[in-house]
Amino acid sequence: MLFSGSFETCYRANLWSRLASRILWKIGDFAYADENDMYEAAKQLDWPSYFSVERTIRVNVTAQKSPLKSLEFATLRIKDAVCDRFREATGRRPDVERVSPDVRVHAFLEHDRGVLYLDTSGEPLFKRGWRAGEAEAPLRENLAAGIVMLSGWRPEEPLLDPMCGGGTLLVEAAAMARGRAPGAKRGFGFEKLRNFDSELWTTVRSETKPAAPNCELYGSDTEPKALDAARRNLAEAGVERWVRLERADVLERSAPASSGVLIANPPYGERIGSKDELARFYPALGDALKRRFAGWRCYLFTADLRLPKLIRLEPSRRTPLYNGALECRLYEFEIVAGSHRKRPDHPAYQK
Question: Residues of 118-146 as b/e, b for ≥16 C-beta within 10 angstroms?
Answer without folding.
Answer: bbbbbbebbbbebbeeebeebbbbbbbbb
